[in-house]
Design a protein that fits this description.
two-stranded antiparallel sheet, mainly alpha
Amino acid sequence: MNIGQASKQSGISTKMIRYYEQIGLLETVNRSNSGYRLYSKDDIDDLCFLRHSRDLGFSSKQMKELLYLRKNANRQSADVKQLTQEHIETLNQKIAQLQEMVNSLQNSFDHCAGDDNADCAILEDLGQNQ
């Protein structure tokens, strides 16, 4: 199947498919005599795997490692679990940072009168050097 069909089946844009191939995340696919990329069922499976991994926030480097582990029949599930644990820890750190941001903004929001006066606690808090 061609890149447009691969895109439709995998849910990954053609531009992103080309990028994944360029950075070595996706193995170079076969080409037709006229130079068009030809994707196999295995290629589509890899693309779907990559899309799901990306949706879960894995980096390109992590996705490459996960794809390698997926294809390696001699892998140890402990390796996959370790990589996933590290990603979970990173996500939890990001969640904590986002929650701090929400709390800070909520505090400023709560102290802003939101009326016709020019005074605004939100702008004052944003202007403070932290």
